[in-house]
Design a protein that fits this description.
Helix content: over 70%
Number of helices: 15
């Protein structure tokens, strides 16, 4: 197996795990009653945006749009597909060099697809603001270039364990560069982009040849590839949520809902089709009622939803008190 096949196998295994995790969270009822209506609603709003019927879009300042683009694109998600066995067992510099090159190409394609999606979603705003097609395409290319510089620079500063103020400064400069592009100020955009380019060339020197921070890159790769699964398992209570304090508490909270019993009850309630289908039908009905019911009769809808919620809580609490699993947890916690 050569380097290219090894890289493709690791990416394929990672994608398969991500797909299984999403399938674990989103079953067919959530997709049918939640995802599909939300996609239809966003498509209808996008059509209204192209037609210019959303007047509030023109009143939003460009800095807010630049901040929104930055939240989507300026995430530090770059890592290399190198594992510890490549270093401890094989220890081939050519293998690490090829895996780094493939990782760079992989993240470049991923970032290009994300930038194209953001440009496609943001294009109506620029068109309504009077931008031409050539200007929009030039903005898309500049957006991809600036985002790639930010991703590369933040990654190099992260593996070097640089001060957090330096990493935050790079992000702020990138946001200012995006803002300069949106307000049609090419001078400031060129100045800020040239500064980012110089910093990126300085901090990235020798990354493909010398591998000076390979241990930090391995730790970052393992953390990012398992971040989503760890967040899901810590939320569900399957594993203990780690404490980020320098002086950890004597007994940190095991999950995000306070206790294992409460977390298990919430997840069991959500995973039960009868309860989940009740809320997937009641919530759209309540939203439709808030839109159609006139005047003060709207107050009755949240009161009814709250009454149903209280009744569901009482009934499910009585049901869980008779469940042997929660009786076993109660016996362990009473000791």
């Amino acid at each position: 197996m050569n380097e290219h096949q090894l890289f493709a196998r690791r990416v394929r295994i990672h994608m398969t795990k991500q797909w299984k995790t999403w399938r674990l969270i989103l079953d067919w009822t959530v997709v049918l009653y939640g995802v599909i209506p939300f996609v239809i609603f966003l498509g209808y709003q996008y059509r209204l945006l192209w037609q210019g019927e959303l007047g509030w879009v023109r009143q939003v300042p460009m800095f807010v749009w630049a901040l929104g683009i930055g939240i989507v694109l300026l995430r530090n998600q770059f890592f290399v597909w190198v594992e510890r066995a490549d270093v401890t067992l094989l220890a081939k510099r050519s293998l690490i060099h090829r895996l780094k090159r493939h990782s760079l190409l992989y993240h470049a394609l991923k970032l290009g697809a994300m930038s194209l999606f953001v440009l496609w979603a943001f294009m109506p705003v620029l068109w309504l603001d009077g931008w031409s097609v050539s200007s929009i395409l030039a903005f898309g290319m500049a957006l991809l270039f600036v985002t790639a510089l930010h991703t590369w620079t933040r990654y190099q500063l992260t593996i070097r364990c640089s001060h957090w103020m330096l990493r935050a400064t790079v992000t702020c400069v990138t946001l200012l560069c995006l803002y300069a592009l949106l307000i049609d100020s090419p001078l400031w955009a060129v100045i800020l982009g040239s500064g980012l380019m110089a910093v990126a060339m300085y901090v990235g020197e020798g990354w493909l040849t010398r591998h000076p921070y390979l241990s930090q890159e391995l730790e970052r790769s393992e953390a990012l590839r398992t971040a989503f699964d760890r967040a899901l398992l810590s939320t569900s209570g399957a594993i203990e949520k780690p404490s980020r304090r320098k002086r950890p508490l004597y007994r940190p909270r095991p999950n995000r809902f306070g206790s294992v019993r409460r977390t298990s009850a919430i997840l069991l309630y959500i995973r039960t089709p009868r309860h989940r289908n009740l809320w997937l039908r009641l919530i759209p009905l309540a939203v439709t009622g808030m839109l159609l019911v006139p005047s003060w009769f709207k107050v009755l809808i949240p009161l009814y939803v709250g009454y149903v919620m209280w009744q569901e809580r009482q009934a499910f609490k009585q049901e869980m008190e008779r469940h042997p699993f929660f009786r076993a947890i109660q016996e362990r916690t009473d000791l």
